[in-house]
From TrEMBL:
Designated name of the protein: CAAX prenyl protease 2/Lysostaphin resistance protein A-like domain-containing protein
Record-annotated CAAX prenyl protease 2/Lysostaphin resistance protein A-like domain positions: 170-256
Tagged with keyword Transmembrane: yes
The entry's keywords: Membrane, Transmembrane, Transmembrane helix
Protein species of origin: Parapedobacter composti
GO molecular function: endopeptidase activity
One of the GO biological process terms: CAAX-box protein maturation
Pfam families: Rce1-like
Record field: transmembrane: 20-46, 66-86, 98-123, 166-187, 207-224, 244-266, 278-300
Lineage, highest ranks first: Bacteria, Pseudomonadati, Bacteroidota, Sphingobacteriia, Sphingobacteriales
Length: 317
């Protein structure tokens, strides 16, 4: 008797790796094209405003807040927003990556707001835990490189948020909160998480692997743990809620909170270091934060499940 072929789960359909290669190619092309274009636009804008006097000042433009915002916006649009949109056009057979129109129970929106509010102290604890971690002496070279990258990213963030005018606050929110939230959720949760979930045939594995990649790509290694946990949270908001705008809202709340906190602190003559120091919170408050976050997540899952069964006749896990 002839033996039957072994199925690997992708017979008759394209392997997710093929789509992943397309996504990365589009991201690379978008980053190069939009990064170059935004740098040109930024230089022309500053030159007309009198902030620069010629090409010889191009190097100094990289420390100009306005130039950095234009460059960051263009880079994010090219690398994170356009590729997911193009994937739904170019990826054959057509895949549905960005669930823009999936029906959402209105109760989920305030739940997302509550989850991000109550989870804040838990993320702060994760930051403190992450900062205490040290690599073995044998990896001191790697640790020094990580610290240098951390300092570089911190300098960039401070420059982006250093404008204390109300116009500066508005542009900071657009670049740091709106564009970043839309782009990173479209790319990581909308595309990468879906592709990895198909590849591993397990949505939970897809969520956590995506969360690790999401955190690592920021090159802020002493914030790796909290960003990974936040990425996983965004992943479950999408898995259960089935609409990409739910994790986009959560991401926006997180980034906007940082931008607005920096703005009001700087307006009052205080420093970024004071914002990083945070508030002294009693230990029991973290337990309350954990309980309230867990309750809201449970209720979010329950509400989203009922909504999804009602409209699609299917469960979420």
């Amino acid at each position: 008797m002839a033996s039957r072929p072994v199925s690997h789960g992708f017979q008759g359909e394209k392997h997710p790796a093929t789509s992943l290669i397309l996504l990365l190619a589009l991201a690379f092309a978008g980053a190069v094209i939009m990064g170059t274009l935004s740098a040109f636009i930024g230089f022309i804008t500053l030159n007309r405003a009198g902030s620069l006097t010629g090409l010889e000042d191009l190097a100094s433009a990289t420390t100009h807040t306005g130039f950095l915002k234009i460059l960051q916006a263009g880079f994010s649009i090219g690398m994170f927003i356009l590729p997911p949109l193009l994937m739904e056009v170019f990826d054959k057979p057509r895949q549905r990556y960005l669930a823009f129109t999936t029906s959402v129970n209105p109760l989920l929106w305030p739940m997302v707001l509550g989850i991000m509010f109550f989870a804040g102290p838990l993320f702060e604890q994760a930051i403190l835990l992450n900062e205490r971690l040290q690599l073995p002496e044998a990896l001191s070279g790697l640790e020094n490189w990580m610290k240098a990258k951390e300092a570089e990213q911190e300098r960039l963030t401070k420059l982006l948020l250093s404008d204390t005018s109300y116009w500066g606050m508005a542009t900071s929110l657009i670049v740091v909160a709106v564009i970043a939230a839309i782009g990173e959720e479209f790319f990581f949760r909308g595309c990468l998480q879906r592709l990895l979930s198909r590849w591993f045939n397990n949505p939970h594995t897809g969520i956590w692997v995506t969360a690790v990649i999401f955190s690592a790509i920021h090159l802020q290694f002493y914030g790796f743990l909290p960003r990974m946990l936040m990425g996983a949270l965004f992943g479950y908001l999408l898995l259960w809620g089935k609409n990409i705008w739910l994790p986009v809202l959560a991401h926006f709340i997180n980034n906007a909170t940082v931008a607005l906190s920096a703005f009001f602190l700087l307006r009052r003559g205080r420093s970024f270091e004071e914002m990083d120091a945070g508030l002294q919170i009693p230990a029991y408050f973290y337990f309350i934060s954990f309980v309230l976050t867990a309750v809201l997540l449970y209720q979010y899952h329950k509400t989203a499940t009922a909504q999804n069964i009602r409209y699609n006749g299917e469960t979420l896990d």
